[in-house]
Amino acid sequence: MNESSRPTFTYLGHSALRCDLPSGEVMLVDPWVSNPSCPEELREPGRIDAILITHGHFDHITDTVELAQRHKPRMVVANPEVCHWLGGKGVENLREMNTGGEIDVLGCRVTMTWAQHSSGIVDGDQMIYGGHPGGYVVELPGGFTFYHVGDTDVFSDLQLIGELHRPDLVFLPIGDNYTMGPRRAALACKLLQTPRVVPIHWGTFPILTGTPESFSTELHRLGVECEVIVLQPGEVY
Fold first, then answer.
1. For residues 185 and 215, is the Cβ–Cβ distance under 8 A?
2. Per residue in 101-144, pLDDT tens?
């Protein structure tokens, strides 16, 4: 792993991730910074240059409109349906993409991947179709590549994604109920062949019963050699 090209990652709780790039620019993924796990002092990012949104569920998209209007990021990336909804709320600098597409974001090559999940946007008392959910592979100019898988079950194409992109670091949901739990997440790591993984989407609510300890146990059971980097909300890697 090329450490000089690696971003600084701050886990903001649930699936929210802050990436401070070597250039000094800031990228947020699924910026639900008002989630109950996010430390109060990190709910105001100070600077946002780009936002990536995996899908339209409230626990991924909430705070996007407010943050985008306040910080005016150069690019807000999502699928067409989510972009359409955000545009109706006054968000600017929207960039639509879809699964398999590759675009430049802050000098990084960003690929949207498939996710096995659902997507819907709560707007008042309505649930609006949010397009198909996804994930993002982000390759930095120096070669370091990370993959935020988004909300998903395990699916066999993770092996193809691993072969195509060789991510150095994967952010993977393990909480169960709404995403894969520890057993299926361990199989996802086996398919991806990633050397390092950060568990996300766990512990925010009691219904998310998957834990990093159970995840590590399942990796060992499958014989998967993968470093598990457990970050508590607010911790930095």
1. yes
2. 999 999 999 999 999 999 999 999 999 999 999 999 999 999 99
Could you tell me the two tokens for 207?
């219904």
Q: Are the C-beta atoms of residues 11 and 234 closer than 8 Å to each other?
A: yes
Q: Hey, what are 157's tokens?
A: 């194409």
Structural domains of the chain sorted by starting position, each given as residue range(s) with its CATH number in brackets: 3-228 (3.60.15.10)
- 18-77 residue pLDDT tens: 999 999 999 999 999 999 999 999 999 999 999 999 999 999 999 999 999 999 999 999
Identify whether the C-beta of residue 114 lies closer than 8 Å to the C-beta of residue 160. Answer: no
Rg of the chain, C-alpha, whole Å? 16
Neighbours of 45 (CB within 10 A): 18
Residues 6+ apart with CB under 8 A from 46: 26
Nearest Cα to Cα of residue 20 among 108, 109, 110, 133: 108
